[in-house]
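Hi everyone, sorry if this is the wrong subforum. Our group has a chain we'd like a structural model of before ordering constructs, and none of us has done structure prediction before. Sequence below.
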Amino acid sequence: MKKAKVLLITPNLKGIADGVNRIQPSLGLLLIAPMLERHGHKVKIYDSALDGWNNREVIDKKNNIVMIGQSDENISKVVSNFSPDVVAISVLFSNLLESAHNIARIVKKVKKNTIVVLGGNHISSAVSDYNIAVMDKDSGLPKVISDLEDENFDLAMTGEGEFSFVELVDRLINKEDISKIPGLVKKIGHQKYIINPSTRVHNLNLLPRPARHLVDMEAYFKIGAFHSAKSRSKRVLSVMCSRGCPEKCTFCSTPQMWGNNTRWRSTEHIMDEISNDVRDFKIGEIQFDDDTITVNKKNLFSLCAELEKLGLPWCTPNGTKVNYHFNKQEEMYKVMADSGCYQITLACESGVQRVLDEIINKRLPLETIYPSIENAKKAGMLVHTFWIIGYPGESYEEIQKTIDFAMNSGADSFSFAILSPLPGTPIYRKVIKENLWWPGRTLDDMLFRSSLVKVDGFTGPDEFEAFVNETNQKANLMLKKKDPERFAYKYGQNPDESALVKQT
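Answer:
Right subforum, don't worry. Here is the predicted structure as tokens:
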């Protein structure tokens, strides 16, 4: 069998020049790469944003928006030098699409016959919306998969691609039929597509150790812009122990990618990855990017027993549901703290029960939030909290209630986020159907704390964004007055107070 040369690409970042622009290795690509290598294919991972981290092209002067990453010329050189048979571009968020389409164009210009494949969370969500549009003529969603209307993208893959993408590459390079591959999306005519259902990797222990040797980990460490902004080390290892979330929050796209059934790797499998990478890369901190790391207490306790032996600090930057194991939280949080967890992030989202119940569909009794925060603090952990404001149907009074509720919660830090209507979510479909965009704002404008959807009580997006920035700074400075020692433990002795808007 013939073997292929496969180039896996993370595109440039679009962000606010002085905002939060985090960068870390793409775990999806780090898992696909060794699967390809097992099959004898030659693999290169290229992070265009990392390679051109200091290159910042202003693309919107008024709003201080920049494109961070390599120039077209340098991307072209990478493609030309490697001369791939297949290029896969991973798009996690929709605001990366502009760069992804540009890279696809460059690839085709350099080597016309290269097969270009789009993968990642975005395309899974986009296909989900397309399927709804076909079934519901009144949805307002476009009956087209716009990314595949770009002639530079040949194919797309949805869902978990570790096994299916390898099969795709095997078949492409040997000119075999690809029509039945799980997760394949292919244009076959004017707005007509083959869309194969994606599959889940049910046994996560079959996944390889992420191929961090194929990326420049030292460059990521030097930048130090990992998921948790206030880490205890710049030598951070990002790890996922599980996939899937049992919750069905209306703003979250996780179900489209990972499903609602939580699957766990064994403790042995997780620790094999961690212990080897700690040794190889001199890791100083672990950040667990699971969506719900506390959902399975038995698995969590097993992991904590091994982490305690390791002796490294760790945290949960992705957040976890507030009230899991509510009656036994004191025990759970103590086990986590004793094993090295210095900060837990709790996804509270709103301080109004109506919003939690009717808008978010979040199974969270409001009365459990304050005790959960207190339980975590008693265990010795910092408590960071997530809140979202600006939901469709949320009143100005409810926004203020959420802010007041949060600031009286006793949490150590706060992240008030502006709702982002992510493709593939019920809230996105509501925004599309009812045309709730601010005038002049579209999905292309989605950035960290950018306002796209009309908000009650505000005249425009700029006013609401300024309000949210001020709220974040005020909330996070509150701790300085209330508990200077705990503030210093969280932020250091002399933090840049203006940065508390961005780095919370």
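For your construct planning: The chain has 17 helices and 18 strands. The chain has a mean pLDDT of 93.
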